[in-house]
Amino acid sequence: MTLKALEKIDTLCVSRCDPAETGLHWSVFLAPETVVPAAAALSAAAYCLEDILALDTADGFVVIYHFNGWDFNDRVALKIQLPQTHPTLPSITSVFPGAQWHERETRDFHGIFFEGNPNFIPLLMPAEDADVYPLRKTDKARRAIRDIMNAGEVVSCTGEIERLFAPPPDPADPADPKTDRGPDA
User: Fold this and answer.
1) Half-sphere exposure of 183 toward its Cβ, with a 13 Å CA cutoff?
2) How many of the other CB atoms lie within 10 Å of CB of 137?
3) Strand 13-16 to strand 113-115: parallel, antiparallel, or no bridges (unpaired)?
4) Which of 91, 102, 121, 157 could bridge to 117 as Cys pair (CB 3.0-4.6 Å)?
């Protein structure tokens, strides 16, 4: 089985998920420039937008869009990794007008900007706190993507995304060039 709705979209990683474990059927990593075409493809295939959220990780922000079929159960999470500095994505309000609220909330809490959103007046934060992002973490509090997300059953994946889920290097592994084995080695 494949995610037919996104067959013509360039994806970075597509994984099947266990709905009983994750609530999802598919997890799809995308490049930022493909989020609008992917949203349009899902809309054309009778998917609706459920929500948009962001995670602040040691690997950068991950913006997650949850979709589900209008009259069928096939939950899809589109995931886009962004840098900590100047995180920006194109708005999907041209496809899903209701995304405006979700994008505004994500901007209020994380400082992620959605280019093309027609209304970026703060939604939940006071206007005088427009540059305060309460859900941004300190470097010490951030965890790696591999520690907070399940990769699922990978169908296709680029090396860039595979590295996000790879186990950390073992400091005791002599094959790791960063391992300091001391002067007696």
Assistant:
1) 0
2) 15
3) unpaired
4) 91
pTM over 0.85: yes
The pLDDT tens digits along the chain (185 residues) read: 468 999 999 999 999 999 999 999 999 999 999 999 999 999 999 999 999 999 999 999 999 999 999 999 999 999 999 999 999 999 999 999 999 999 999 999 999 999 999 988 888 777 777 787 888 999 999 999 999 998 889 999 999 999 999 888 877 776 655 545 455 54
- Contact call for residues 107 and 91 (beta carbons, < 8 A): no
Check if the beta carbon of residue 100 is closer than 8 Å to that of residue 119: yes
Among residues 34, 8, 30, 7, the alpha carbon closest in space to that of 157 is found at 30
Q: Which segments of the chain does DSSP mark as H helices, in order?
A: 19-22, 35-44, 99-110, 145-148, 159-165
Secondary structure (3-state) at 153: strand
**Domain range summary for the chain, segments of one domain joined by +:** 8-148
CATH architecture group of domain 8-148: 2-Layer Sandwich (3.30)
Pull the structure tokens for residue 62.
Answer: 């991950």
**Beta strand pairing call for 153-157 and 13-16:** antiparallel
Residues 6+ positions from 41 with CB-CB distance below 8 Å: 5, 6, 8, 9
